[in-house]
From TrEMBL:
The encoding gene: cysS
SUPFAM superfamilies given in the database record: Anticodon-binding domain of a subclass of class I aminoacyl-tRNA synthetases, Nucleotidylyl transferase
Keyword tags: Aminoacyl-tRNA synthetase, ATP-binding, Cytoplasm, Ligase, Metal-binding, Nucleotide-binding, Protein biosynthesis, Zinc
Family: Belongs to the class-I aminoacyl-tRNA synthetase family.
Location, primary (coarse class): cytoplasm
Cellular compartments annotated: Cytoplasm
Designated name of the protein: Cysteine--tRNA ligase
Cofactor(s) of this protein: Zn(2+)
Keyword Phosphoprotein: no
Tagged with keyword Ion transport: no
Superkingdom per UniProt: Bacteria
GO biological process, alphabetically ordered: cysteinyl-tRNA aminoacylation
Molecular functions (GO terms): ATP binding; cysteine-tRNA ligase activity; zinc ion binding
Length: 465
């Protein structure tokens, strides 16, 4: 099957054909770094990480860019509250973002450009728009002239009349039209600023992505992505800015993930129902959150709830336990020939996994293929004799699938059986010495790693959750 993806621009599933054979240029809008990221931010981060992983899995060379908005009104206000400079605040939350991404097993982008490192290209981009009549200056601010770009609204499938009468637009007497948007903001007293042909100021939000895509990926890219809330106005404005300069499509495919709700309510600051990634990661395994996010198709709204997390945790435990059992059995297996029937079945399951991912990155059905592999693995494990080659084949497919989904516990995070036995013996010694604090500390450590202890008449037994 050929990879097909839903293109927001055409509202159809389209066969993926990169601009350059074997290579993919992909840009996803990153965070405004004035706070810790919440689980709503986590959904696009996880999904587009999987898109990037899968494209790599099927053989593409992917250049993946995710920007940092490190100066805007939110950062300026937050820096005033905390007593930091804007740069200090941005540095702190970029570091926190990267920690949270690592926690979620999200691989760093090829490039993570910062707006403040790219002011020259941004100012040059705005200046080109002014010179070509697509932008105008008024009072030190620069605005994009939407009436000049005849295709404005083509991504969100709206026209200027609908935008004028159907959407609340902030009134600004300096604009020629209400739909015009800011490219450069004149600095207020005391604000951080950069020098420009229009005076001291800083860029608007939309222009940064156009400039960064142009600088790091070129005039046209293969995939541009983000949350559905970015379709309008952010991505619409990016298209207007970029295509006015280049005369070429900014992106061939536009991908947008749907919203994440909290207990069936839209997540919002007014409701106070945002959940930070770093807080939820203290309560559940990060892999569980990834598994939960990927258990629903990215174009469907996803409801975040305790029940949903519990179900995800149970499903992931089933997969993880199977992998653990395979590892244990592999350690004692004989080097016999590969089982041809198992090999054929594993190939069927792999083809199913690829077919589902090729169908607009259908991760829920791809996870079903993973469970089919669990079923086959458990059947094999019930046999009295099984070859090491057969077990390695199955383990290899689990690793392949996980290279895309990223849902299994990282091996460096797992305790080996002999390490567990050693800790249990140390705990027994601590109990004999009545060092209850150390005994409890070891139990807590094992519990954190998903190891549960059971006191029985025959002694202590342990099991992985």
């Amino acid at each position: 099957m050929t990879l097909r993806m839903f293109n927001t621009m055409t509202r159809e599933k389209e066969e993926f054909k990169p601009l350059e054979p074997g290579k993919v240029k992909m840009y996803v809008c990153g965070p405004t770094v004035y706070n810790y990221i919440h689980i709503g931010n986590g959904r696009p981060a996880i999904f587009f990480d999987v898109v990037r992983r899968y494209l790599t899995y099927v053989g593409y060379e992917v250049t993946y860019v995710v920007n940092f908005t490190d100066v805007d009104d939110k950062l300026i206000r937050k820096a005033e509250e905390t007593g930091e400079t804007v740069q200090e605040l941005a540095d702190r939350f970029i570091a926190a973002y990267m920690e949270d991404m690592k926690t979620l097993r999200i691989e760093p982008a090829t490039i993570h450009p910062r707006v403040t490192d790219n002011m020259e290209i941004i100012i040059t981009f705005i200046n080109s728009l002014v010179q070509q009549g697509f932008a105008y200056e008024n009072g030190g601010d620069v605005y994009y002239r939407t009436s000049r770009f005849k295709e404005y609204g083509k991504l969100s499938h709206q026209n200027l009349d609908e935008l004028q009468y159907g959407i609340r637009i902030e009134v600004d007497e300096r604009k020629e039209n209400p739909q015009d948007f800011v490219l450069w903001k004149a600095a207020k007293p005391g604000e951080v600023f950069w020098s420009s042909p229009w005076g001291n100021g800083r860029p608007g939000w939309h222009i940064e992505c156009s400039a960064l895509v142009h600088k790091y990926l070129g005039e046209s890219i293969d995939i541009h992505g983000g949350g559905v809330d970015l379709t309008f106005p952010h991505h619409e404005c990016e298209i207007a800015q970029t295509e006015a300069i280049t005369g070429k499509p900014m992106a061939k495919y536009w991908l947008h993930n749907e919203f994440l709700n909290i207990d069936n309510e839209k997540m919002s600051k007014s409701l106070g129902n945002g959940v930070l990634i770093r807080e939820i990661a203290k309560k559940i395994k990060p892999e569980t959150l990834r598994f939960f996010m990927l258990s629903s198709h990215y174009r469907n709204p996803l409801n975040f709830s305790e029940d949903g997390l519990t179900q995800a945790g149970n499903g992931l435990d089933r997969i993880q336990n199977c992998v653990t059992n395979l590892k244990h059995r592999l350690g004692i297996a004989q080097e016999d020939a590969l089982d041809d029937q198992v090999e054929a079945r594993v190939k069927e399951i792999e083809a199913q996994f690829i077919s589902k991912m090729d169908d607009d990155f259908n991760t829920p059905d791809a996870i079903t293929a993973v469970f089919d592999l669990v079923t086959e693995a458990n059947r094999v494990l019930q046999q009295e004799r099984v070859s090491a080659a057969t077990l390695r084949l199955i383990m290899g497919r689990f690793r392949n699938f996980d290279s895309v989904l990223g849902i299994l516990a990282r091996e460096e995070d797992e305790l080996l059986d002999e390490e567990i036995e050693g800790l249990i013996e140390e705990r027994n010694e601590a109990r004999r010495a009545k060092n209850w604090a150390r005994a409890d500390e070891i139990r807590d450590l094992l519990t954190e790693k998903g190891i549960y202890l059971e006191d029985t008449p025959q002694g202590i037994r342990w099991r992985r959750k």
